[in-house]
User: Fold these one by one.
Assistant:
Number 1:
Amino acid sequence: ETGVTQTPRHLVMGMTNKKSLKCEQHLGHNAMYWYKQSAKKPLELMFVYSLEERVENNSVPSRFSPECPNSSHLFLHLHTLQPEDSALYLCASSQDAHGSYEQYFGPGTRLTVT
Amino acid sequence: QQQVKQSPQSLIVQKGGISIINCAYENTAFDYFPWYQQFPGKGPALLIAIRPDVSEKKEGRFTISFNKSAKQFSLHIMDSQPGDSATYFCAASTLNYGGSQGNLIFGKGTKLSVKP
């Protein structure tokens, strides 16, 4: 295991639901990330947190709302999603918020929006 | 400018053969090039990385070749094994801090199947 856990592993939700994805890292890292992985597309960086402060928000729709209460936990709150939001959502952490540091990924949450 | 173009999309190799995956980039500010490996049901994991001060880096059966003038880099897997079957992603970032330049930009991935 990588030291990054994600729950739930699978989630099916309707477009009017509200749900949250949870990520926890046990590596003592200072940075955490949310990525969206869709078939035949590059991993899309959604949010970056460094020391619990958001440092990057790549024009993500407001129906995705991140929360980082401490350096070990990261949430992604979901509401009124669209079917095109169905994807694998990956959480990652690294020693520092920079691409040259190895990123450790969790196994992802497979989200299906019906 | 921020894209990393990866090819092929999928690759089938016989056991013992050489697997080659290629990536190209436009942004000359990129100076860190990692490769990530992803097995089904798992997140990507760092496999090997290179910085442009060297043209080649080898770790076991995995080698990165880097051509700075052509803005291309490739992953070679020697003596490919069925256990290497996975999706491989190239990526790029800069070593300079500041804004989004330090973020990893990923290619679309290559699904490798190694046949016994």
Number 2:
Amino acid sequence: EVQLVESGGGLVKPGGSLRLSCAASGFTFSPYIMNWVRQAPGKGLEWVSSITSGSTYMYYADSVKGRFTISRDNAKNSLYLQMNSLRAEDTGIYYCATEGCDYWGQGTLVAVSS
Amino acid sequence: SYELTQPSSVSVSPGQTARITCSGDVVAKKYGRWFQQKPGQAPVLVIYKDSERPSGIPERFSGSRSGTTVTLTISGAQVEDEADYYCYSAADNNLLFGGGTKLTVL
């Protein structure tokens, strides 16, 4: 069974940083593109970032470009999102999702507030 | 930039057919997917490659495409199908979600 478990969310002040992690199990992690998708409270889904299997290419939504960095460790079956210079509008649930968003984790809540 | 446009809400009575559309230029170039999201839960894939259904998804869920519009059809909608539905496509190394449609079944 595919499992994705996010962690690392929490309350942070504007301008602060957080590092999200996603632990994957139940499938072969290394060959697949992985994604982060977020959802602001009461709003729709927004793609944040994607990373290719060997970390050759990383892609970002314009709203986070230059502030967020996606990475992965295939030996640990893990995906990461380093979030710097956080803003109030970054508040929401952050989901880790497999290639094509076939499978999703349960998400981790990030709240940016003073 | 690309956009995917969905109606904000659709309402049907139990047993009726619900249709949710998703329009955008990118739909003409890439396969569409549909996700169901119930309150407090993560999204679940219900349709991929425009019309394919993952294992475990009831047969009443189907998808179709015409030009720059893909449509999710729920034939004989059940109360448990009440949820938000999002279309999705990939464009220029970005992932694109529609704004979401709240389906009410009552």
